[in-house]
């Protein structure tokens, strides 16, 4: 119990009217229920039976453990797993024609947003930012002379390398 009955002397000294034990217990339960609203009734009674309650302190809720997110693969791991390599059986020009059709639709939509009176610098900026995956491109300059004149659909674009599939189903 968190209270005890006052003696007769203390009650008279402080001019307090004494209540019966049952009324006093009912008062304490009602008071705790109002002052500590987040506690369930059973929990409140358990705390009254076992220990004292500090009214200005609320028990903290248990924090759920945060799930650890799996980290992505590093560049070295991606290269070792060959995630971006196109398998030889999938290196066929006909498989990538639908990608080229999608690219043509993308460029049409991009150019329809441009007006004829638009400045050439704006047009160049938009075309420079355009995605080229699926574009039909031709090589005009290269360090390797055998690549000059090569025409095909652009499949992959990295920092310094374009991967192109030719009509002869060769990936260059």
From TrEMBL:
One GO term (biological process): rRNA processing
Source organism superkingdom: Eukaryota
GO CC field: multimeric ribonuclease P complex; nucleolus; nucleoplasm; ribonuclease MRP complex
Any one Gene Ontology molecular-function term assigned to this protein's record: ribonuclease P activity
Pfam family membership, one: RNase_P-MRP_p29
SMART domains, per database record: POP4 (SM00538)
Gene3D superfamilies: Ribonuclease P/MRP, subunit p29
Compartments where found: Nucleus
PANTHER family noted in UniProt: RIBONUCLEASE P PROTEIN SUBUNIT P29 (PTHR13348:SF0), RIBONUCLEASE P SUBUNIT P29 (PTHR13348)
Role summary: Component of ribonuclease P, a ribonucleoprotein complex that generates mature tRNA molecules by cleaving their 5'-ends.
Record family assignment: Belongs to the eukaryotic/archaeal RNase P protein component 1 family.
Quaternary state and interactors: Component of nuclear RNase P and RNase MRP ribonucleoproteins. RNase P consists of a catalytic RNA moiety and 10 different protein chains; POP1, POP4, POP5, POP7, RPP14, RPP21, RPP25, RPP30, RPP38 and RPP40. Within the RNase P complex, POP1, POP7 and RPP25 form the 'finger' subcomplex, POP5, RPP14, RPP40 and homodimeric RPP30 form the 'palm' subcomplex, and RPP21, POP4 and RPP38 form the 'wrist' subcomplex. All subunits of the RNase P complex interact with the catalytic RNA. Several subunits of RNase P are also part of the RNase MRP complex.
Protein name: Ribonuclease P protein subunit p29
Organism: Dipodomys ordii (Ord's kangaroo rat)
Lineage: Eukaryota, Metazoa, Chordata, Craniata, Vertebrata
């Amino acid at each position: 119990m968190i209270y005890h009955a006052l003696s007769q002397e203390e009650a008279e000294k402080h001019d307090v009217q004494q209540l019966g034990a049952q009324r006093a217990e009912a008062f304490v339960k009602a008071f705790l229920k109002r002052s500590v609203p987040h506690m369930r009734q059973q929990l409140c009674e358990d705390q009254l039976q076992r220990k004292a309650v500090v009214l200005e302190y609320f028990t903290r809720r248990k924090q759920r453990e945060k799930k650890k997110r799996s980290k992505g693969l590093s560049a070295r791991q991606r290269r070792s797993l060959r995630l971006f390599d196109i398998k030889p059986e999938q290196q066929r020009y006909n498989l990538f024609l639908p990608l080229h059709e999608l690219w043509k639709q993308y460029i049409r939509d991009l150019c329809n947003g441009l007006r004829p009176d638009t400045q050439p610098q704006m047009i160049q900026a938009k075309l420079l930012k355009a995605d080229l995956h699926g574009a039909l491109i031709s090589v005009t300059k290269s360090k390797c002379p055998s690549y000059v004149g090569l025409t095909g659909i652009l499949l992959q674009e990295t920092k310094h390398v374009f991967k192109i599939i030719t009509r002869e189903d060769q990936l260059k």
